[in-house]
Specification:
Helix content: 40-55%
Protein name: Short-chain dehydrogenase/reductase family 42E member 1-like
Number of strands: 13
Largest sheet: 7 strands, parallel
Structural class: alpha/beta
CATH class of one domain: Alpha Beta
InterPro entries: 3Beta_OHSteriod_DH/Estase (IPR002225), Lipid_A_modif_metabolic_enz (IPR050177), NAD(P)-bd_dom_sf (IPR036291)
Radius of gyration: 22 Å
Family: Belongs to the 3-beta-HSD family.
Number of helices: 14
Distance between the termini: 71 Å
CATH architecture of one domain: 3-Layer(aba) Sandwich
Pfam families: 3Beta_HSD
Order of helices and strands: HEHEEHEHEEHEEHEEHEHHEHHEHHH
GO molecular function: oxidoreductase activity, acting on the CH-OH group of donors, NAD or NADP as acceptor
Length: 389
Amino acid sequence: MADSNIYKGSKAVVTGGTGYFGYKLGCALRDTGAEVVLFDIKELDHLSEGLTCLKGNICNKNDVETALKGAKFVFHSASYGMSGREQLNKDLIEKVNVEGTKNVLEACNTNSVPHLVYTSTYNVVFGHDEIRNGNESLPYLPMDQHTDHYSRTKSIAEQSILKANNTKLRDGNILRTTALRPAGIYGEGEQRHLPRIVSYIKKGLFAFTYGSKNSLVDFVHVDNLVSAHVLAGQALVGNMPKAAGQAYFISDGKPINNFEFFRPLVEGLGYMYPTINLPLSFIYIFAFLTELVHAVVGRYIYNFQPMLTRTEVHKTGVTHFFSINKARTELGYSPVDRDLMGVVKHFREQGHGKKVPKKQSSLKYFIINVLIGFAFAFVLMSWLPKVHT
């Protein structure tokens, strides 16, 4: 953890501060002695002691300038459109991720805020091709190869933030910036991805896996990601800050098959782990059709939650994992070994999960698996060209 003297008595602003990750980061910064302001569009009913919540919109330039007044550190984690139906809201994604980041940079200049840590994503370099043990020397994925607006806009935002490094601020000081690229985030109380996965498990929709069983991806526990951000802020301070102008991949450093990662959650809640594995192409076609349907139905009739989007299929079914050596060496990042048992316990305490006899459960899920397999086969066959005789 960073030296508390770096932050002690300094104002640190966390955009997206009332979100799952932002709030935990705010608490960690408070513990170092910082005066923490959580800036977000929503407020919290219960705020931990020593934190201040400021309601405002990242898309509103005046709100951002007000939030950053007197700040020495800004941790810009506010974003929109990471998963699910949010991924299909192009206009709002653009406003939050691109215009919002522009507002943060302008507010840093106006208020002479010298240190900016940006929460980016693996997707600035990953699209659909395998990446094994990649590092920060990889080029950005070309803009026209992104299949979703979130990844494209996060890439634009990251590049603008790193480009702003070493720019002169209004008071004559220099702006130092860095970007952290986290893997999929998990942890007790996570509200974005895990509840969605648990709902699929309970509804019997987690009835198959897809893609190669040897495919590997990264995950990062929220506490490790928080530690990386605190360390990154520290590494921006001084005459020759190591992190200035740099990007870092952040994960637990333990690549694993996406579905095997969630096995403890499935079985820990009393359900059977699926035995059927479907081709990635089947699932990709299904996701593509879902997006087409959502483009019409979601806008004019009912904004339903897509089971999967094309980007989510690639992120979960295609191998892509990255080295964290640069973060270890330059930031002093050392992830603590974590697993999903704490998450399982959390959901159990929330009343989720069941216990059923294995024979009953096996028969039920075998039938579900067969039906879903036929459904995907039908979708695929409907797209094949007709043969005329």
